[in-house]
Design brief:
By secondary structure, the chain is α+β, with helices and mostly antiparallel strands. It has a single domain, classed as Roll (Thiol Ester Dehydrase, Chain A). It is elongated, with a radius of gyration of 16 Å. The mean pLDDT is 95.
Length: 133
């Protein structure tokens, strides 16, 4: 699944280079759209009093990006368990060069109990289908 994103002034430092912390936001937006493409929307999760929460995230910066760049973010599930997801994401520039990579581990959390819980079967099935694509 791919997501396109334009770099805005608020994403950059005084030199017009994307601030390193902005990449976390870029990846979060792309994951949200990835889930949405599977019919898993934040509002629906909130109605169930559940959420995917980031347990671990690691980024590797390969090349900079700049103000007004058009970036493409790829999101792929690389591992699943009863309560967790492992996702790999990458950002490519207009030329197709990968400029940043991310690995994130998410846990499914019951907001009322404030505990990690099993991913509901309907959501789990949608996630499995995305792995097969």
């Amino acid at each position: 699944m791919g997501f396109n994103l334009r770099v805005y002034y608020s994403d950059t430092d005084a030199e017009g280079v994307v601030y390193h912390g902005a990449y976390v936001n870029f990846y979060d937006r792309a994951r949200t759209e990835f889930f949405r493409s599977l019919g898993i929307e934040s509002g629906n999760l909130a109605d169930r009093n559940c959420v995917f929460a980031v347990r671990k995230i690691g980024l590797e910066y390969l090349s900079p990006s700049f103000l007004d760049d058009l970036l493409h973010i790829k999101t792929v599930i690389t591992g699943m368990g009863k309560t967790r997801l492992k996702i790999e994401q990458s950002i490519s520039n207009r030329c197709g060069e990968v400029i940043n990579q991310c690995e994130v581990v998410l846990f499914f959390v019951d907001l009322q109990k404030k505990k990690i819980t099993a991913i509901p079967s309907d959501i789990f099935d949608r996630l499995i289908q995305s792995e097969k694509k």
